[in-house]
Amino acid sequence: MSESVFTRPARAMSSFPSWSSVRDTLSRRLQGGRRYVSLLLLLAVWQAGSSFGLISTRTIAAPFTILATFRDLLLDGELIGHMSVSLLRVSAGLVIGIGAGTVLALVAGLSRLGEEIVDTPMQMVRVLPHLALVPLFILWFGIGETPKVLLVALGAVFPVYLNLFAGIRSVDRKLLEAGRTLGLSRRETITAIVLPGALPHFLTGLRYAVGIGWLSLVVAEQVNADSGIGFMMIDAREFLRTDIIIVGLLVYALLGLIADQAVRWIEARALRWRPVGLGA
Length: 280
What we know:
Blueprint: H1 8-14, H2 19-33, H3 37-51, H4 63-75, H5 78-110, H6 112-126, H7 134-141, H8 145-169, H9 173-181, H10 186-220, H11 229-238, H12 242-270
């Protein structure tokens, strides 16, 4: 039986969202926007204080000045050049640090002998302030790119090692017993049970490693560098350009946030098997 012309408007109206759903959507968006109110208020007070001379430009530049400086540095290509150098340094350091941390954690976590050989030296070295090793790195590796990359790598290796090692050792014993009951070999147990069980810990360590890697780069680029965001900030300090210094800090923060979001994206897809309530 064909649809009556009298029922068509009613069905069309039913396809529109109800007032309650629209109200709930608006309420959620307003609640989400309230978290930015304090930030906007701070920026307004900051700009007003700079405009009326209450905040010295030598102490810190005004927000509008910082925005204009960011635009100028971006348009003339200087900022892009320094960002490219910084990204290459931190990427190389993270690859080395994450790779080394993973290998060391597997050696120590999967073998008692490996733990006795690896864990004690790692626990001793990790308590050293690695940023204080800059003078030694310069003596050992010179003033080129090598000490900067290795400083980032040193900062990244320990979060990966500690978290992956803890993840391997915290795998549920019942799962290991089930694997033995099923006749799995040691290799099959490691690949099918231990490594998947330790994956959440590894990804947590990866997030920490990325953050510490950027923190290490901030210091590394301020020592005998001729390019990079850190060099740009040090050069600006000589001319009391607080606007450029703030731009550099904002770029560091933005790049670190993007890197962290990338790891979270990987984490969300790699851990789809976990219950939603336990997800990242």
